[in-house]
Amino acid sequence: MLFRIARMALFYAALIGLWQLVVRMEIWPRYLVPGPRDVLDSLKTDIDNGLIPHALKSSLQRLAIGYSIAFGIGMVIGIATGAWRWVDETVGSLVLGLQSLPSITWQPLAIVWFHLSERAILFVVVMGSIFAISISARDGVRNIPVLQKRAAQTFGARRLQLYRYVILPGMLPSLVQGLKLGWSFAWRSLMAAELIFVTIGLGHLLSVGRDFNDMNMVVAVMLVIIAIGLAVDRLVFGTVEAYVRDRWGLSQT
User: Fold this and answer.
1) CB within 8 A of 6, min separation 6: which ones?
2) Cα 149 → chain centroid
3) Residue closest to 137 by CA, chosen among 103, 91, 102
4) Residue-wise pLDDT tens digits, 64-97
5) Could you tell me if 126 and 66 are in contact, meaning their C-beta atoms sit under 8 angstroms apart?
6) 3-state class of 213 per DSSP?
7) Alpha carbon of 213 to those of 30, 208, 226, 236: distances in Å?
């Protein structure tokens, strides 16, 4: 454990050193490529004055709402396409096609349908993550061995019991990866959607930094976005993945 931490610390220290070296070489003007200390000062200032904490709170609230909606709808679509062939051939094919659309392509529709509002942002977040969740749920249902379903039915399991005790637990290993992927899509979609109109949020702070040519703020906010992504990936999904691997006997150790 200590070796892993030391290795990561050494890597990021080398990365910061390389960043500082590039700045000192003055390949680009300082106002375009700020140094680590300038970015750190900007980050500290924006945290102390409450700008970044307030923006982070607003962004996380939108993310929680949008991702929850996408999770609910995506699970229904995924289970339906995995359980019934005719649904997979119709709705499933549409989901696969829409999955190829970048989340930013939903912005024009969001503006036309919901105007410059919170609903427009939530719409982009939902559409950016719902299909990854649907596809993972579908694959999870289809990967459950048929013998498990037949065994449950032989012992008298009804349809509701079959889904509760066989299908839902059996699809978890595949579903966790889809939820993780869906969250990353939702997080990126949110950052893009917050550029739609003037509203407090991390994405809007990026726009403010760009408009005022404040690259210190832009890079500082980018570091916050990266830190949140890493924290959720390691602390939330990493914990869930470890539990699922251990519970379902998928650990390599």
Assistant:
1) none
2) 32
3) 91
4) 999 999 989 988 898 888 878 888 888 888 888 8
5) yes
6) coil
7) 12, 8, 21, 35
